[in-house]
Amino acid sequence: MRKSLFGGAAALTLLLASPIYAGFATSAVGANGGSAALVSPPSSALGDVSTAYQVWNESSGTLSSSVSLENNGAVGAYSGVSPGTSTTLTSGTPYGTTFIQLNPGIDGTVNSGQAIINFSSKIIGIALSGTTGGVPGSLDNTDQYGAPGTTYPTGYTNPSNNRGIIGKTNDFFTIMNGGTELEVHLTAQFDGFKELRVFTAGGSASGVPEPASLAVWSLLGTVLVGGSFWRRQRPAV
Questions:
Q1: How far apart are CA 158 and CA 82, in angstroms?
Q2: What is the span of the domain harbouring residue 230?
Q3: How many domains does the chain have?
Q4: Angstrom distance (rounded) from CA 116 to CA 10
Q5: Predicted confidence (pLDDT) at residue 11 exceeds the cutoff of 50
Q6: N or C, where is the chain less crowded by C-beta within 10 Å?
Q7: Whether residue 201 sits in one domain with residue 89
Q8: Distance between CA atoms of 136 and 68, rounded to whole angstroms?
Q9: Is the same domain home to 84 and 141?
Q10: pLDDT per position as a tens digit, 198-216
Q11: 8 A C-beta contact, residue 79 and residue 92
């Protein structure tokens, strides 16, 4: 019995040494005439056609290389022509990524109102640009942190639509609630689409345990209960 307790304690130590939270979107709702849905990652980002904002959680862990992003997650109101302060997240930074897309597939101007997305941890950066003039933007450069199994439009070079919102006068976003809430107001034109990738911190802002931390506490409970049982079963000396 003592051996099993030691094994449980060792496993607990390993789990506690690993990140136990992942910053992801927890909800996505429409506002002011818009509609939004938190969906499972599709097989193809461009195949996920909808007049509603499509939001999906992608991946989490630590960055394998540094990434440069156009917005640093500071609370405030921004637009495609005023995206905020840029930032560079260094290699090894704990992160979670969430993708936001408006892809109505309509040959005309589509103003889809607003979407409000809440996250389990603070926004630390947002990728806002696609390929421009043959130069990959932040969306292209961070597709490696997308959802496994989802094909992204890396290198998309339509002259009138480069998947991002940088330089666009009709795209807006606001970071609120201490950096854990994002409101987007985007416009897609002529079969075009708009995308953002949100990087969130690898720690929980709400204190609500993610599945990994639930496993830690479950194991801790097992170890403690087992230890109590073992002590009760020891013969008196």
A1: 22
A2: 1-20+209-237
A3: 2
A4: 42
A5: no
A6: C
A7: yes
A8: 12
A9: yes
A10: 999 985 443 333 443 333 3
A11: no
CA distances from 2 to 15, 65, 178, 228, 229 (A): 20, 43, 47, 11, 11
Report the C-alpha gap between 145 and 43 in whole angstroms. Answer: 15
Residue listed under structure tokens 């421009």: 132
Question: Is 225 found in the same domain as 155?
Answer: no
Least confident residue range of 15-24, 57-66, 109-118, 147-156: 15-24
Q: Where are the alpha helices (DSSP H) in 81-197?
A: 138-141
**What tokens were used for 185?**
């107001």
Distance CA 124, CA 219 (A): 31
Crossing angle, helix 211-233 and helix 2-16, to 10 degrees?
A: 160
Q: Classify 6 as helix, strand or coil.
A: helix
Residue type, 24: F
Q: Is the dihedral of CA 103, 109, 112, 117 positive or negative?
A: positive
> Which sign does the torsion angle of CA 70, 65, 208, 198 carry?
positive
**Tens of pLDDT, residues 57-106:** 999 999 999 999 999 999 999 999 999 999 999 999 999 999 999 988 87
CB atoms within 10 A of CB 44: 12
Burial string for 111-143 (b: 16+ CB within 10 Å, else e) reads ebbbbbbbbbbbbbbbbbbbbeeeeebbbbbbb
Q: How far is CA 232 from the centre of its chain?
A: 47
Structure tokens at 19: 């990140």
The 3-state DSSP class for residue 155 equals coil
Going by C-alpha positions, the residue among 166, 168, 169, 164 that lies closest to residue 153 is 164
The torsion angles phi and psi of 57, rounded to 5 degrees, stand at: -80, 145
